[in-house]
Structure formats: structure tokens, C-alpha cells
Write a structure and sequence with these properties.
296 residues; alpha+beta; Beta-lactamase; 28% helix
Amino acid sequence: MKKPLLVLVLLGCSLAIQTVSAGTYRQQSASGDAVSHRKHKIPSLKVQSHIALIYDEQRQLPLYEKHSEMVVPIASITKLMTAMVMLDAHLPMDEEVNVTEDDLNKIRRAKSKLRVGMTLTRSEMLKIALMASENRAALALARSYPGGPRAMVEAMNVKAHILGMHDTRFLDPTGLDSDNVSTAQDLVKMVAAAYKYPLIHQYTTSTSHSVEGLRGRTMRFNNTNPLVRNASWDIGVSKTGYISEAGLCLVMEAKIDQRPVIIVLLNSWGKHTRVGDANRIRKWMEKVDIQDFQQS
């Protein structure tokens, strides 16, 4: 980990830039002098995830950045783009979509509760793909897309370009392909776009969902982000992800202290690191004065 850089104070100017724990945040001094700067010093923030970005949606500026420009695998965070492209196609959500042999992932082994022969509505497939990160559900949705999986992936890349996600590339709709890559800066744009879809908000923040499986057996799917079950969090969009190349990942749109922010945490290691980082970020934001931040 890099050592903290010294604070750079430009006398006669109103901008000071600090770097902590390999992450950066920007502070605006009240009067521009060193005394005022010390009085309004921003509390330090220690984020364990290798890549992190906290983005203030109201002021449209980053509050904290750590390796936010690095292009890395994003695992199942991919499914937010899969969902947007699916919803953009305006396909009937009550139409039945079945699981076939084609939905058995060819890239790598991944656990799934869905069995070949199961049939769910497109709406249910989308919900468990987002909420429980069900890969076979995402593959079934892609197969039901006009033109099939290849057309869906092409549409995902086109939408990424339209959103200005120029360091992002998709090769499959699940995120199991490690060549699905992006940056924290690009993912802020994707999460902001996903938040505008009411179904994505509803499905990614649902705590659980039950469906009827084969032989009438009830199957329960739970949200992979435990924070959606925490009443102290106000979450608008949530998505987790994991493959070995990407580490544990988490993106969220949430309101903290009545302020909407987007949080991106990538390449976390340790079962509880990404959730711990999110809770540390919330406590940090409850302490800071947002007016101390400004664009660089």
C-alpha cells in the first residue's frame, strides 16, 4: 500500500488536495488559509477493497477515489447491463422462459438452483438474476433476447458506449467471463443509468423471492447483498459479484444522511470486506461536511 502523501496547501487559493490510504478526497477550504483548512479537516477513511469510488450524485463529483481508473474484471456486476438491455427490448415480462441445456454455463463451473426443464416468467428470471445473481437465469434471458446471446452482448456494448463507458467491454451476459471488464469510474455511470429503471430498483433491493421448481417444489432465492436486509440502509440499486479474477465486488446507489451517492467496491478479499467497507463509508459520510468537497 502506498504511503500517504503530504497535504499540498496552495496559499491564496481555496483548494487543498489530500491523499489517504491510497485513496484521494478533495477538500474546499472556507477562506483559503491554512488555519481554516485545519479547522475543516476531513476525517480519514480506510477502505480495504483494492478499488473504490464514492460519487456524490447531487453535486456530480467523486468524494473518494482509490484506483478508480483501473480496468479490471467486474464479474456479476455485468448483470445490471444485462437487465437494462433486456428491459430496453420491451419484451413481455409475463412470457415464460425455460431453462435448457444451452443455459449450462460453458465458461466455468458455477452453482445454480435452476434445473434444466424449469420454466419461469421473464420477470422472475430477471429478478433472480439480479437479486440472487443466478447465472442460468441470465443465460436463459439472453437466449430469449431477439437474436440470442450474441445480439444481447452486442447491445450491451453499444449501450455502454452510449453511456460513455469507454473503458468497458462485455463478452457474456453473466460476468463469468473474466474478459468482462470496466473501471470504477465507468461503473458509476452504469449504476446511475440502472437506477432509472423501476424494476431494477425493485428487484435488486428485494430481500428474497420464491418460485415453483420441478415437481412443485418451492425454491427460495436470497439477495446476495446482506445490506438490503439492514433497515438502517436506504438502497436504490444493489449488485454483487465474484469470480476469482475479479475478487468480491459490490456496487450500490444509496442515500446516506439524505444524500444520494453511488458506491463502487471492486477486488475485495475476505468474506466481509466489501460489506465492512460499505459500512465504514456510511459512517465516514455521516461525519464529513459535503460542502468541504469541490471539483478539482
